[in-house]
Amino acid sequence: MKGIRKEFPGVMAVDGVDLSINKGEVMGLLGENGAGKSTLMSLLYGVYRLDAGTVEIDGRRVTIKGSGDAIALGLGMVHQAFTLVPNMTVMENIVLGSEPTRAGVLDRKLAARRVDELMTRTGLPVGKDILVENLPTGFKQRVEILKALYRGAKVLILDEPTSVLTPLESEELFKSIRKLTGEGSTVVFITHKLKEVMAITDRITVMRKGKVVGSIATADATFTKLANMMVGRGVERKFVFSEYKPGAVLLSVRDLVVSSRLATRAVNGCSFDVREGEIVGLAGVEGNGQTELVEAIMGMRKPVSGTITIRGRQVSGLETKDIMGLSVGHVPEDRALSGLVLDFSVAENSVLGTVDRPQFSRSGFISFRAVKDFARRIVAKFNVAAPNVDVKVRNLSGGNQQKVIVGRELSNEPHLLVAHQPTRGLDVASTEDIQSLLVGARNAGRGVLLVSADFDEVLDLSDRILVLYEGKILGELKRGVGIDQLGKLLGGVAE
Amino acid sequence: MDLVLLAAELASFGLQQTVAVALASQGEVITEKSGILNIGIQGTIIMAAFAAALTNVYFEPSMGAYSPLMGVLAGMAVGAFVNFVFAFLSTKLNVDQVIAGFGLQLFAIGVTMTLLGMHVEGSFYDGTPLANTIPSLAVLQTPLLAVPVRYMYAVMFLLPLLVYLVLYRTKFGLHIRAAGENPKAAEVGGVNVGVTRMLATSLGGVFVGLAGAYLTVDLNSSYTTTFVAGITASVGFIAIAAVVAGAWKPAYVFGVALIFGFSLALISVFGQTSGWTYYVLTMVPYMITVATLAIASKRLRPPTALGSPYTKE
Amino acid sequence: MKGESPRGVVGATLIAAVPQIVALLLGLVAASLLILAAGYNPLVVFGTLFRSALETPSGQASVLTYTGIYTLTAIAFLVPGKASIWNVGANGQVYLGGIVAGVVAIYLPLPPILWPIAAIVLACVAGGIWGLVPGLLEAYRNASAIVTTIMMNYIAVALIDYMILGVIVIKVPTVAQYNDVVISQGAMIPTLPYFSSSIMVVVAVLVAIGTLYLLQKTTLGYRIRATGLGRQPAEAKGINPRTSKAMAMFLGGAIAGLAGAGDVLGVGHSCGTVACLQTDWAGGWFFGEGFAGMAAALVAANNPVGSIFSAAFFAVLVSGSSAVFTNFSGLNLYFFYAVQGLIVAFMAAPYLSKRIIGLVRGRRWT
């Protein structure tokens, strides 16, 4: 690939990239969130159209206008967000787009045979007739891989494959990758995790802010070298923590059981406390019950059994509004879905949930002067880059949107702050800003429940770390523990 | 004795009234399964009905008793075309499907009625039924139970099966369902979502058009303002409701269509036009529709991408 | 809003309006093509239409009356729209308002000023209930409002015919006796000076302004807009989307009911007897008022105050249409609906309008 460029509104995602991939190797594409790795590969796969640049395969120049072309050329891609149709079976999903037919009628027997063959050959068995929506994440990913292979992919592009897997599932994936390359396939492994890229790849190409920083053989790489290439400065981040003197108990969860949307037990007997003046990090790979736990605490989901006590009051069954009224702030997991109304202005978003309070409205009539002043204070104090408070929040960058949310929550001076994946998808500068804000809150005597799958973040910030695995707290660690101990617990291995 | 006659009458009218809803709703199932929400099928029905009637009249001198067939074909073609236009607007121009549906429908009704006003030919337009329509077969030899059977009844019963086979047993059907659930996945898998949706909607339009043709050429309603604004005017919307209530599954949708159709039949069987019972009965089908939706909608899961336009970046 | 330079707000509104106006013009162009196809000169036809509407006293009165009605039904559509519910039931809600107003006007004699006010209030409540039912069904049972409101329209028509022809309320067993049952003067809404139209149009403008205020400056409006623009964030922050949606539908229905009351009690429209209350399937005058309002709202990009102007436009179209019908045979009432439909269809494609504007301007239009 030479001279690749792609621009999205407001963002130069990929800027003059040259990249070459050799046959039979595992090439690691490393970079921070937003560096352009996924976009680059998506361009190769035909999901997006190139603004500029050329692609050559086996020495021949090719034009890829759509995924169909890419597939025909032997490329296959497994995305971060699964592109499976949930209420179709595994087999239907695998053969979608190249179904064996007899005069237009689906030949199920032939399809079944071919899929079985594929599964045995590659050592990736999955139940063919299960509806995809009922599969655990690791298996869904397997189906994605099978899909690509069914189509005859010689080059398999995996986009952040381990972001949704437990360490054990990741090991399985690595085994499969080694098997595939053993059979002559080529694999491109996109990730932002240093450890993995060192473990599985032959060569590593590092990207930063849409450009390629460099390519080195894995044998020559070290953590520090790679980290420097990725970030451009030392990865060490130091926060100032005041003395650890936890105060009164703010949040107390006992034997909590919460079911998920699929009626399984997402939270299966959880107990823990959060006190004033501490950050409790709830670490875990996504999908182990974090979402349901946070929803239960915030009154968005009714628990099956167990108790949640906030500042002395039993809250299971209360409405979200009332829980917020107990001085609890919430930075939600997905800001676009649950944190901000994208088409509202900064000012309007700043009072989302609090607009009924006397300082903002009187008997149903909103005082916009009060609201805008409040919003302006947030913008100033939390360093939000916005021209004024009347712009629609949609027009702000992800980092600034998140700052609006955190700023809003903290400005309401909550005793307890529940932060769920607060820095996911943000650039480095914004991530640091947000993390400093959390530390600042903790130093000021607030209690913070930090639920995060960014284990570096959890290790850096938390006073105490609780590991959530399959709905239970598997263990508690104190500040200063190493990633290996954390990793074991994350994989489900209890002490 | 009386009860038997009543049952026969009910069955007769019931089937009669069900056909249009059943056909249109099956067509809409295909359309919606591909992700396109066509609210305006009432317009398609009206246009198809008009086209069918017009073609019937046109071909009468040359083809005699076979002219209704031409009418049916014309209706199906017009149905496919109108739906195609709608699908084109929805996929290529990314219009808001609900608004476009209403607009198209309003336009369709307006245009056909205007054309109606402008053509003075034939007594057909002032309320007299067509001379040539599809004949019905008398069935059941006993003189007590004479439930006329129309060819369309057979079509109506077979269509859900056909739709099911297409959707769940063919490659095209797989593409349709994928386009409706997760167009991104389909696109990535090599399916051209836009083309699939247009084809699916046009195919649905064939059956919707057939429903329209049935109304004029088979059931022989006279094409007047009463037709356009009367009970038949709600066929399209009842069909849409049937699709929702039947959870987008062809067999269930047909079942619901039968219920709705029979409730429409109650009006013909029990209501005398001058009495107040007529108006009460007129309300019944719609109340049943609302009630059905109220009960059924909570647990339903429409095709995930229904109504959302899909663009390639 | 407060603190912003007025010129900025007006300017922004006008800029936002351009795609809508372009779409409107496209609709008219398409309509002209249809007129051509019918064998007439579009300029002549539109000329007749505008002159009849704007130059004759009856035309002017009609324009005022219909502006009032369409503004109200436009608001009835757009308020629930802000909560992301499609209220296509304005037709039925208008009917309900009309019949209740009529009943009060005939059977419930009250002292002078109180009488019309009571009729109006009850009409609003009736319309509100008619909108509330589908609203609740969608909010709590997930039943698509589009379909349920349309069904409610049909039920409304049947209900009213039943009540009139039927035995219960009006007790008029045969058609011949309709004209004897008169709506007395005491119940009528006051008339404008000089024009033969009721003050409903003024009320409508006030309601439009009030709606804008409600949406932007009250907590209820905030909740409605939040529900429509971001249901999940709103819910996560304690705003109950279900109650907001139901409230929005009630308001929408009530405003449509107000329009119905205006129809029956206002001099521009009613003829003072029960006969005028009866709808028949092919269209008592109520036919299409809800849809016209919807079209007006769409043209005005769901802006309450803008709807006044788009409503006026459609009012002109309707008022001039009878002149067109008499002078050009073949262009009948349904032609007007076709034009309406075209305009609505063009409203559905803002993308298209923006592309055309972009072509004209030589660069992309945001």
Structure description:
- The complex is a heterotrimer of chains A (495), B (313) and C (366).
- Helix content of chain A is 33%, strand content 26%.
- Chain A is α/β, with parallel strands linked by helices.
- Chain A has 2 domains: 2-231, Rossmann fold; 249-490, Rossmann fold (3-Layer(aba) Sandwich), CATH 3.40.50.
- The two termini of chain A are 48 Å apart.
- Chain B has a single domain, classed as ABC transporter involved in vitamin B12 uptake, BtuC (Orthogonal Bundle).
- Chain B has 12 helices and no strands.
- In chain B, helix 1 packs parallel to helix 5 (151-169).
- Residues 120-126 and 137-144 of chain B have low confidence and may be disordered.
- With 366 residues, chain C is mostly helical.
- Chain C is built from 14 helices and no strands.
- In chain C, helix 3 (57-82) packs across helix 11.
- Chain C starts with 5 loop residues before the first helix and ends in a 5-residue tail after the last helix.
- The chains are: A alpha/beta (495), B mainly alpha (313), C mainly alpha (366).
- Chains A and B meet through helix 2 and strand 8 of A and helix 6 and helix 7 of B.
Task: Annotate the secondary structure layout.
The complex is a heterotrimer of chains A (495), B (313) and C (366).
Chain A: E1 2-8, E2 11-17, E3 26-30, H1 37-44, E4 52-57, E5 60-62, H2 67-72, E6 75-78, H3 90-95, E7 101-102, E8 105-106, H4 108-122, H5 137-150, E9 155-159, H6 167-182, E10 186-191, H7 194-200, E11 203-208, E12 211-217, H8 223-231, E13 249-259, E14 265-275, E15 279-283, H9 290-297, E16 305-310, E17 313-314, H10 320-325, E18 328-331, H11 335-339, H12 346-350, E19 361-362, E20 365-366, H13 368-381, H14 398-411, E21 416-420, H15 428-443, E22 447-452, H16 455-461, E23 464-469, E24 472-478, H17 483-490
Parallel strand pairs in A: 3-10, 3-11, 6-9, 9-10, 15-22, 15-23, 18-21, 21-22
Antiparallel strand pairs in A: 1-2, 1-4, 4-5, 7-8, 11-12, 13-14, 13-16, 16-17, 19-20, 23-24
Helix pairs in contact in A: 13-14, 14-15
Chain B: H1 2-33, H2 41-63, H3 67-92, H4 97-118, H5 151-169, H6 171-181, H7 183-188, H8 193-218, H9 225-229, H10 235-245, H11 250-270, H12 276-296
Chain C: H1 6-37, H2 42-55, H3 57-82, H4 90-107, H5 114-141, H6 145-165, H7 200-217, H8 219-229, H9 231-236, H10 241-265, H11 289-299, H12 304-327, H13 333-347, H14 350-361
